[in-house]
Each structure stands twice: as C-alpha cells, then as structure tokens.
Amino acid sequence: MPEQKKRCVVLGVTGGIAAYKAADLCSKLVQSGYDVHVIMTAAALELVTERTFFTLSRNPVTVSLWDVPVWQPEHIALAERAELLVVAPCTANFIGKYAHGIADDALTTFALAHTGKVLLAPAMNPRMWNNVAVQDNLKLLQSRCVEFVGPEAGRVACGDDGLGRMAEPEAVLEKICQLI
Ligand SMILES: Cc1cc2nc3c(=O)[nH]c(=O)nc-3n(C[C@H](O)[C@H](O)[C@H](O)COP(=O)(O)O)c2cc1C
Fold first, then answer.
1. Pairing of strands 161-165, 35-40
2. Cβ pair 90, 149 in contact under 8 A
3. Which of 96, 132, 135, 144 has its CB surrounded by the most CB atoms within 10 Å?
4. What percent of the chain is helix, strand and coil (3-state, nearest 5)?
5. Contact of 97 with 118, CB cutoff 8 Å
6. Atom from ligand 1 closest to the CA of residue 95
7. How far is CA 6 from CA 3, 22, 30, 80, 145, in A?
8. Is 8 a catalytic residue?
9. pLDDT range class, residue 104, cuts 50, 70, 90
10. Residue 65 DSSP label
C-alpha cells in the first residue's frame, strides 16, 4: 500500500526498562500495515537505539525538537497526519508531564499538538505506580479520555513483584486495532 494511504501511528518511546518491548511493538505495527513514526525521549536513548526503530519503522526517528529537516517542525507535521499516539513504555515522568501540559522535548510537545487518540502503556516499579501523584495524574488523564493498556502484575526488572509490568506488545497492538 502507498505510504500516504496507510494509517499513521506515532509510537512514543520513553525511558523505561521495557523500551526493548517497543521494538517488537514497532515491528508488529509495521507488519499490520500502519505507517509508524517513532519519537524517542533522551532517557529512552539510554536504553535502546534510534537505529533499531529507524530500521523497523522504515521512517526517520525523531529524537530532538531541534532536528528539523524541512521548514515545518516534525511535531507539527506529524500532528496533522497521526491518527493515534501510543506511548510504550510510558514512564511515570511522561504521565506527569502530559497530565500537566508540559512540553519540554519532542515527545511531550508532539503529544500536546496531537488531536487524535492517545493510548498509554505504563511501565514502572510497583511502588512508583502506587505513588499517589502517579495515581492522581492517571485519573486526570482518564477524565480526558486518554486510553490505557496495562500495567500488568508480576515480577518487574528490579526484582519487585506487583502492578507495573508493561502490557505485552500483542495486547498493545490489539488495543490499537480497537481504537483506530
Ligand atoms: C535503568 C533504568 C530503568 C528505568 N526504568 C523506568 C521504568 O520502567 N519506568 C519509569 O517510569 N521510569 C524508569 N526509569 C526512570 C526514568 O528513566 C526517568 O524518570 C526519566 O526521567 C524518564 O524520562 P522520559 O519520561 O522523558 O523518558 C528508569 C531509569 C533507569 C536508570
């Protein structure tokens, strides 16, 4: 299918240890026929590489607000095309910034310019997930019709047990297909 006819999905990758799962999600989205554009935070780049997502998505990856190849900033150009923003993994930090309208990097700035659907796949230590600030931010976003998938219960990377594991890429894809 020509790229311009494909449905455009922006995959935001934030700095959670589950960022490796985002590569699988990216691949599954492309195989499902979506035009996938990836925006990574600086923390995500500490955990996984831009090249992985460039290769899997077959599109340039946005890692900086200031890396503008054409006259129109990428966060605005993409906002005109994207039907859905999925942030996976989604950190406590992103949830907090998005809930409070902060736009201090490419992903949070895009999120504020985006008018389509938003799906977040939180992933964090269970103590972070249960923090009252995170739960309050979550309720604020739910009241604005932001969709969530996960987190799931189980053992997290640091060894703790509880709610905090990112939903599996298959479950995130299924939710995306329901939403658009
Ligand atoms: C090894 C490592 C793993 C981390 N994993 C998580 C995580 O799973 N979830 C989370 O919310 N924060 C996690 N953090 C903390 C975030 O990276 C940190 O809050 C960062 O500011 C997030 O930035 P971002 O939301 O712009 O990506 C981790 C930090 C480190 C050093």
1. unpaired
2. no
3. 96
4. 45, 20, 35
5. no
6. 25
7. 5, 20, 10, 14, 25
8. no
9. very high
10. T
Task: Decide: residue 132, CB within 10 A, 0-12 exposed, 13-18 middle, 19+ buried.
Answer: exposed
* Averaged pLDDT, 12-17: 98
Please give the Cα distance from 97 to 178 (Å, whole number). Answer: 26
- The token duo for 60 is 């340039």
Ligand 1 contact, 94 CB (< 6 A): yes
**In the structure encoding, which two tokens stand for residue 47, read together?**
């955990």
Q: What is the mean pLDDT of residues 49-72?
A: 88
pLDDT at 75 over 80: no
Q: How far apart are CA 122 and CA 152, in angstroms?
A: 9
Mutate to test the pocket of ligand 1, among 41, 91, 128 (most ligand atoms within 8 A of CB): 91
Specify whether the CB–CB gap between 17 and 88 falls below 8 A.
no
What is d(CA 67, CA 106) in angstroms, rounded to the nearest whole number?
A: 10
Question: How far lies 93's CA from each of 11, 13, 77, 81, in Å?
Answer: 17, 12, 25, 26
Averaged confidence pLDDT in the chain = 93
Distance CA 135, CA 54 (A): 33
CATH number corresponding to 3-179: 3.40.50.1950
pLDDT for 141 equals 98
